[in-house]
């Protein structure tokens, strides 16, 4: 059975990935545009951890056939021929299925809405919310592959989420946008935060592109730790709005850009760097 590494670049819209230089991701595959089933982190991750990947928005098909086909693809991803849609029933949980197959299951997440007290941690042997919002490198330092059994590593990366930066800068703390709920009841009337103008939104969009490139560089170190024939999936949970239609961010927004995400999968090709 193949080891599995599943990477979710939180809030990364497709065209940010498309614009970024991603030589390490390109060693896996060239990403395609797909569509998230939800517009914010929590419900989107629920779908991903069911074992359903972002969809292609096909026409002229029954939804049930799309789901069945997606579940069937796990045969190739994991090199387990007997897998089918029925194999995931009744739990409809990728993590539960992998544990039944004998996998060690591990997760590192960046967004507090995915914290270990939520149901997302269910069926993981090892589940941790990182203390730093931007710490893919720290995640890579911590991971280990079990030499006696296949391993599933799941990563939720905060680098591509607002404020899309790798260093501390003076930006407004926007509760909820920062991925936290604990301050939503605070009295924010004293805060007079002006909505970003388009120049600032364009700057933030470029920051997200830079963060994709940072993730790609860190991916090289992860490659060096992975056994041969490790299957990679790299995608996003949803996109982001940078002024299109007057919107910023994601969540309670219905706009196609907030659903457009990159998707790529496969094993690493080429010599190790």
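^ Assign residues to that structure.
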């Amino acid at each position: 059975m193949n080891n599995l590494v599943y990477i979710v670049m939180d809030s990364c819209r497709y065209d940010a990935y498309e614009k970024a230089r991603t030589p390490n991701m390109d060693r896996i595959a060239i990403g395609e545009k797909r569509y998230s089933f939800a517009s914010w982190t929590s419900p989107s991750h629920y779908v991903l951890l069911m074992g359903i990947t972002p969809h292609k928005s096909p026409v002229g098909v029954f939804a049930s056939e799309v789901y069945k086909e997606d579940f069937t693809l796990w045969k190739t991803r994991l090199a387990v021929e007997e897998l089918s849609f029925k194999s995931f029933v009744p739990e409809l949980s990728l993590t539960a299925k992998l544990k039944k197959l004998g996998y060690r299951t591990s997760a590192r997440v960046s967004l507090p809405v995915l914290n270990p007290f939520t149901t997302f941690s269910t069926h993981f042997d090892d589940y941790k919310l990182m203390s730093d919002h931007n710490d893919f490198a720290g995640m890579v330092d911590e991971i280990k592959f079990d030499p006696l059994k296949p391993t599933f590593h799941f990563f939720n990366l905060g680098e591509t989420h607002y404020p899309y930066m790798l260093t501390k800068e003076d930006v407004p703390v926007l509760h909820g946008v920062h991925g936290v709920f604990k301050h939503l009841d605070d009295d924010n009337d004293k805060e007079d935060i002006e909505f970003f103008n388009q120049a600032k939104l364009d700057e933030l969009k470029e920051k997200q592109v830079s963060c994709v490139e940072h993730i790609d560089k860190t991916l090289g170190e992860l490659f060096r730790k992975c056994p041969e024939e490790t299957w990679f999936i790299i995608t996003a949970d949803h996109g982001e709005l940078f002024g299109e239609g007057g919107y910023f961010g994601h969540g309670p927004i219905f706009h196609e850009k907030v659903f457009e995400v990159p998707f790529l999968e496969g094993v690493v090709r080429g010599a190790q760097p």
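The chain has one domain: 4-266.
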